[in-house]
Amino acid sequence: MLNEIIKRAKLHGKTLIYNATDALLIIDFCEKKQLSILGIDSFIISKNATQPIDEIDFTSDSFINSNQYNNSWEHARQFIYSHKENDLYYEITFSDNQKKEQELG
What we know:
Blueprint (H helix, E strand, L loop, with lengths): L1 H7 L1 E3 L2 E5 H13 L3 E10 L4 E10 L1 H5 L5 H13 L5 E7 L5 E3 L2
Antiparallel strand pairs: 1-2, 2-5, 3-4, 3-5, 5-6
Helix pairs in contact: 2-4
């Protein structure tokens, strides 16, 4: 499953970004593997450019500071759902249980 999602991703520099449907599948994967979501950055892809949207991003710092890692998946899903109609792409950053930051891609 994960390999198929990665194949559909768009490349922004060295970072893979995902449409909303695949971003939700990545969040499901992270939950299954107990990988906390640290942040999600949003992008608009046009014919000529990929543009980050600084006004539309998600960070789970408040959950990390309060040790509520498990909430990050549901909050990340709600973030994607709330912007789904905008036709955005997403970069998802996550952490394993040892708090080692990683990017999926």
